[in-house]
Amino acid sequence: MNDSPVLRVKDYCKRFELHEQNKIIPSSSNVNLDVYHACLTALMGPTGAGKSTVLKGIYRTYLPTSGRLLYRTAAGHEIDLACADEYQILELRRTEIGFVTQFLHALPRQATEDVVAQPLLQKGMDRLQAQDMAREMLAAMNLPERLWAISPATFSGGEKQRVNLARGLVSRPRLLLMDEPTASLDPTTTEHVIRLIEQIKTEGVAMLAIFHQPELVRRIADEVVVLQQAVGIETVLEEMNG
Known about the structure:
It is a single chain. The chain is 36% helix and 23% strand. It is of the alpha/beta class and 242 residues long. Strands 8-9-10-5-11 form a 5-stranded parallel beta sheet, sandwiched between helices. A 4-stranded antiparallel beta sheet has the order 4-1-6-7, covered by helices on one side. A 3-stranded antiparallel beta sheet has the order 2-3-12. Helix 3 packs parallel to helix 5.
């Protein structure tokens, strides 16, 4: 294992404030983990433990309540994602950090192959080459070719998840975040996905992924981090401040 982590999460904490109800909802608390090149770190724990919140904090969908998210760039610079400016975050999303979420977000009427090719185009790849790679990835995901030229808006949940995975895997980001990547997939497609994950791991991609299937974790994870259920689901702000 490489001794220099791509990502170090130090004492990460996220709480959600419900101002109208004068409440705080704790989610992730005191999370510590490292993610390395060519390794997959699996994030596990019960529902409500804040697993997705950790990924969204790293991707900066959420601002953390406290803690540090130390990412080492391809140039060797360490950036705290918790306090980096928006330009830095957008640039890292474009060039180095990918996220496979549970939900596919795509422009209306955009062809599926264009949705998958988009990360490659953002990196400056020629359109024809990007589309060829997108088609190869869609084939690897076992998505029927008849669907490649139409919008994924009307696809089933499993089909959308395949598009989401193809889009996340095609550009081989330095750090890949995955939120339950196989949750909506049939066994055959799951096997395709696992093989692809194992392949890109050998190419040096660092991965942090949420899984609920222990058998998959035993098969592909190099490290396992288990989060605990948050306590004190509702805390009155006045009590905390008093």
